[in-house]
Amino acid sequence: MTTTQATAEVFWTAFKVLPLEEKRAVLQRIIRDENLRRDLMDLSIIEERRNEPGRPLRDYLKEKAKKQ
User: Fold this and answer.
1) How many angstroms separate the CA atoms of 66 and 53, rounded?
2) What local confidence, expressed as pLDDT, does residue 33 receive?
3) Using CA atoms, how far apart are residues 7 and 12, in angstroms rounded to an integer?
4) pTM
5) What angle, rounded to 10 degrees, do the helices at 20-32 and 34-49 form?
6) What is d(CA 57, CA 60) in angstroms, rounded to the nearest whole number?
7) Phi–psi pair at 8, nearest 5 degrees
8) Would you give the DSSP letter of residue 18?
9) 15 three-state secondary structure
10) Contact 27, 16 (CB under 8 A)
11) Coil, strand or helix at 7
């Protein structure tokens, strides 16, 4: 485990044991941070689509152009 992973694990463990009200307070602070919020949304989309097959960007752009 890397130092970064270990640090993340410590923070995650601490978050999980917080009372519900304190968890909500932490999440509200995260949501109010526009850049962090966008990063989390991007990560969520990446995780949801992780198992989709890849395709070349040129193919995607051609398909997108046809739809417009």
Assistant:
1) 21
2) 97
3) 9
4) 0.61
5) 100
6) 5
7) -60, -40
8) S
9) helix
10) no
11) helix
Whether 11 contacts 3, CB under 8 Å: no
Host domain of residue 19: 3-67
Q: Which two tokens stand for residue 11?
A: 């923070």
Q: What is the DSSP string of 33-58?
A: -HHHHHHHHHHHHHHHHTTSPP--HH
Q: What six digits make up the tokens of 49?
A: 């689509």
Q: What is the mean pLDDT of each run of 10 residues along the chain (68 residues)?
A: 96 98 97 95 96 93 90
Number of structural domains in the chain: 1
Both structure tokens of 54: 């890849």
Q: Does residue 60 sit in helix, strand or coil?
A: helix
